[in-house]
Amino acid sequence: PAGLTGVVAVAAGSGSSMALKSDGTVVEWGASWMGSAPSGLTGVVAIARGTDHALALKSNGTVVAWGYNSEGQTNVPASLANVVGITASGSTSYALKSDGTVVAWGGQPTIPEGLSGIIAINASSIGGVVALKSDGTVLAWGFEAPPADLSDVVAVAAGRNHRVALKSDGTVVAWGSGTTFTPTGSNSNLVPWNLTDVVAIAASTD
Description:
Layout: E1 7-12, E2 16-21, E3 26-30, E4 44-49, E5 53-58, E6 63-67, E7 83-88, E8 92-97, E9 102-106, E10 118-123, E11 129-133, E12 138-141, E13 153-158, E14 162-167, E15 172-176
Antiparallel strand pairs: 1-2, 2-3, 4-5, 5-6, 7-8, 8-9, 10-11, 11-12, 13-14, 14-15
């Protein structure tokens, strides 16, 4: 949108986009059939998008959801509080709580039993989730497990068929479809062999 400024985060789904502004408000554009953020929504500190629904995390640790609700993905649990992170897959919503546990609702909310010590989560478009633990190790469910020796991770991202981890030394590890590392780096789907000094990561549908 013309004149959009003060943006601190962005998220996109099927045919529509949203931006979080520094004043804690949300701006949306694109497909109107998905609905829009509740009127008067403020105090937002993070946003996430599924295929056809949106999540907003407020500064008080509560979550607001809107959009297509075919599988209950916008039905935020009434008792949900103390949330510090959010992510969404196609029709599933996830909330990371301050105690390191994860709450999920909607389409396919499978969570490993006893899951704890989580500091970051990211869901793919088809429902798989990758989670970063406080000790720098990674868990994943709904798709392939991460490499057994993966450690010292500081950020994670989930694509449709692949996962990515950023390590504390600025290097990147990827696993899943089309991500096997080779020293030549000749395949554009592979992690470049000389990739260093990375400070942020993301993963797409393909």
